[in-house]
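Tip: read the tokens left to right.
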């Protein structure tokens, strides 16, 4: 996977897409954060992310593009924005932060989320949030490839009784079948998979850390 664009270019990309307005952050503030983040935090190949409380997945997904087709959330995931960071996940409080050491997790393909989470923990890696995965594809569309897409199991939904929902979010490429519609073939897609199911074409995206 090639290196991410420089932080300054990532900031400009978010401004072009209007993400700064969705987040309630000025373009100048976004550019200033990017300018300071590299030298002050020693950020090399890092992703500039907006806190999910500021810009949820439902707002980011339509900004994705592949073959000039916009991204979308599957119709049976109307609660996509209720998927929150895993218990114990440390996400910086500010509106903007960096995600370092991103990997698509191809080596974990054909494992279930239930199996992949302890494997990532053993590697001292943190699973990406759904919003972080969307930011990654916004900045690096090539992160999403046919037969090489990824899950973002850092985001989970809790039921009313506190138990985790069995669905886990993922980002892949639509085949244009079923309720997706033929017009969405090849479009980026936010969907879900069961916690105990395996998929040969889905890795488990992760990172080495998050910094404010």
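Filled-in amino acids:
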């Amino acid at each position: 996977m090639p290196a991410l664009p420089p932080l300054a270019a990532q900031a400009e990309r978010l401004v072009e897409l209007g993400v700064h307005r969705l987040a309630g952050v000025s373009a100048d503030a976004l550019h200033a954060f990017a300018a300071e983040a590299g030298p002050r935090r020693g950020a090399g190949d890092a992703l500039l992310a907006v806190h999910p409380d500021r810009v949820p997945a439902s707002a980011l997904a339509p900004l994705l593009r592949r073959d000039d087709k916009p991204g979308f959330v599957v119709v049976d995931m109307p609660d996509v924005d209720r998927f929150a960071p895993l218990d114990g996940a440390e996400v910086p409080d500010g509106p903007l932060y960096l995600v370092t050491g991103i990997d698509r997790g191809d080596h974990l393909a054909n494992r279930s989320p239930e199996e992949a989470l302890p494997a990532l923990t053993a590697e001292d890696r943190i699973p990406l949030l759904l919003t972080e995965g969307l930011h990654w594809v916004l900045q690096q569309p090539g992160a999403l490839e046919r037969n090489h897409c990824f899950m973002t199991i850092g985001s989970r939904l809790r039921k009313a009784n506190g138990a985790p929902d069995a669905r886990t979010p993922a980002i892949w490429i639509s085949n244009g079948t079923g309720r997706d519609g033929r017009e969405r073939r090849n479009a980026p897609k936010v969907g879900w998979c069961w916690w105990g199911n395996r998929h040969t074409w889905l890795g488990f995206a992760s990172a080495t850390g998050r910094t404010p």
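The mean pLDDT is 94. The chain has one domain: 7-211.
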